[in-house]
Write a structure and sequence with these properties.
- With about 290 residues, the chain is of the alpha/beta class.
- It has a single domain, classed as Glycoside hydrolase/deacetylase (TIM Barrel).
- Helix 2 links the parallel strand 4 and strand 5.
- Strands 1, 4, 5, 6 and 7 form a 5-stranded parallel β-sheet that branches. Strands 2-3 form a two-stranded parallel sheet. The chain has a two-stranded parallel ribbon with strand order 8-9.
- About 40% of the residues lie in helices and about 10% in strands.
Length: about 290
């Protein structure tokens, strides 16, 4: 029998961006995202909103074979590209947004790319689509790694209330910016009215208010992707054999990345000049 552990996948945006402009792989090419979902479907995974995964976890129901697709920040491709792909793949997704940053330039990529965050009307369009759940990502991407319980509670509650006022519906899912959370954050998230809070990187576990996520990126081959889905990538990534495989395959992976970067740069030269926005302030890197 194939083992299908539950998995929450963490993405940011879907776009072809030159590696030199996106060294941390915040953007994943749309075709790679499609390939990820299709791989999981072939394994028999079923896809749910984050709120549904949290409901089943809290109720003690089986999570085997479940996947929650999540997107942090709410970049404009979430309204321009993602809905069509979700329809094509027949899956739902959860988007975590910062109500205080709507319509601003995307803070963690160079301005010349012209990538921005969804504005109010675009967010409402996405929220009206039943394939989407909207969650909170704090008001302005506030980092909570050192927050006291009262600080975390105030930020989580206020961002939730702002989104609920805007959307006219309950918001019950939360994502920690940059995946960072202090020991005081999980109880604060519960108090603030959420049913789950998710993290990223090597942090988290399978308790509702510090749920681990795996972050696929543009350099992941099938083996790396399956290791992440299986929940073992964290444990094996620094072992000697894995380091050797990564070293051996790095030239191939990087050649593919350079080819993708060249294509993205060519596309960028043909694109119209981006709109200019005022520079945002005091934001942490989302990873």
């Amino acid at each position: 029998m194939i083992r299908r552990p539950p998995v929450i996948l963490a993405y940011h945006g879907l776009a072809r961006v030159a590696r030199t402009d996106d060294p941390t792989s915040l953007m994943v090419p749309p075709e790679e995202f499609v390939a990820h979902v299709r791989r999981l479907k072939r394994l028999g995974y079923r896809f749910v909103h984050q709120r549904e995964l949290a409901r089943r976890l809290t109720a003690g129901e089986s999570l085997a074979g479940l996947c929650s697709l999540t997107f942090d920040d709410g970049s404009v491709d979430n309204v321009e590209v993602l809905p069509g792909l979700l329809d094509e793949l027949d899956v739902p997704a959860t988007v975590f947004v910062c109500p205080g940053l709507l319509g601003r330039p995307y803070p963690w990529l160079p301005g010349h790319l012209g990538i921005r965050l969804m504005d109010r009307d675009e967010l409402l369009t996405v929220a009206a689509n039943p394939r989407f759940e909207i969650g909170s990502h704090t008001n302005e991407h506030m980092l909570l790694g050192d927050a006291t319980e009262e600080e975390a509670y105030a930020e989580m509650r206020s961002s939730r209330e702002r989104l609920e006022d805007l959307l006219g519906r309950e918001v019950v899912s939360f994502a920690y910016p940059k995946g960072l959370y202090s020991p005081a954050c999980p109880p604060a998230a519960r108090r603030a009215g959420y049913t789950s809070a998710v993290t990223t990187g090597m942090r988290g576990h399978w308790r509702p208010f510090a749920l681990q996520r795996e972050s696929p990126d543009a350099l992941d081959g099938p083996v790396t992707f399956y290791l992440k889905v299986g929940g073992v990538f964290r444990r094996v990534r620094d072992r000697a054999v894995v380091r050797l495989v990564r070293d051996v395959t790095r030239p191939v992976r990087h050649r593919a990345a350079r080819a993708s970067s060249a294509a993205a740069q060519h596309d960028a030269r043909l694109a119209p000049a981006p709109r200019r926005y005022p520079a945002p302030n005091r934001l942490g890197d989302p990873r």
